[in-house]
Amino acid sequence: MLKEFEEKRGDREVENLFAILEKLTDIKDTQLEKVEKASSTALPVLAEKLNQALQLSEEIEADYLELQKKSKQKLAENKEKRQQEWDQFIDDMNFKCQRIDNTFEEKEEELRDLYADLKHNTAEESDNEGKGVDKNETFNSESKDDDSSKNSRDKPSKEKLGKMAETKENFLVTSDLDWLYNYIKCRRNEGDKNIPYLHTLLTGVHVDVPENEVLKRNPVLEARCVKLRAQQEAREYRKMTKGVDNVRMRFPEETISYQLKQVNRQLIAVGQFIISIFAGFLFGFRGVEWMVGNLDFGFRLLLGVMCALVIALAEIYFLAKRLNEELSAPETIQLGGPPKFAEDEKRYENNKKLFKKEHQD
Prior knowledge:
Blueprint: H1 2-131, H2 135-145, H3 155-166, H4 174-189, H5 198-201, H6 219-240, H7 256-292, H8 297-327, H9 331-334
Helix pairs in contact: 7-8
């Protein structure tokens, strides 16, 4: 048994060795040439691609270094430019501040000259008043001398001033004051410093302001206001004398039972409204079918809705009419007093049952 196993094992090993030898021989004879041919064709291409990749990497590195160099140079240029702009901004601000200071000094000098001229003019006016010289007449004479040099736009105002001078009292309207202000401004701009200012000429004048038109009050509104005031006074009087009159010691509106009755009335009205609508719908939905026979469901539903709608409109009409009758009663009658402000007392004779207590003074 063992001997047979060894023989079989030796045979398998020999067969395996021969198979390996055959494969090696086959590879040596056939596959080796194919590998040599494939390597001879593929390796140069691979080497070329590797060289190209190496060249690209070198170019990328060079571009990166160049870009980094340019960015550093640009940052330096921008920094220098910002520094120059900042220096220029500081110089401009200093120049503007200096110009503002100079302008302020010039304005201050002009104000000093203006107040000096004003002081000089006031001194001259006081001297002229002491001598009995009228400043307004002097100004009018100067304006008459300059009429030939003024344009046609100023002539109507001068004629108006001449016409007003003939009347007992001289009045100047706003258009005349505008013309006078423009004339004084023009003369002072020409260099004539002796012309007084407008406020100096208008010192001591009387201003007449037209009164507003008084509108009459609407008589209907006035009558309505009188009626409302009378009702308010009557309400306050009844409230004030409530503790004196034992009949009106306690109005029914102030009791809880009255409030509960009012709530019950409202609830009953709402309940009647809902029940009436439901009964109308039931009549149209079922009653017609019981009287006529079998009908379609949609047709029966339409009949029910129509009947309910008609009954709802009728109920709303009567409910609104009833509320209108209750609300149309005069306020004094509702409070238990005499119908002082009722326009038509006969209208409320049938509604006396609503008012349990009447005023008994």
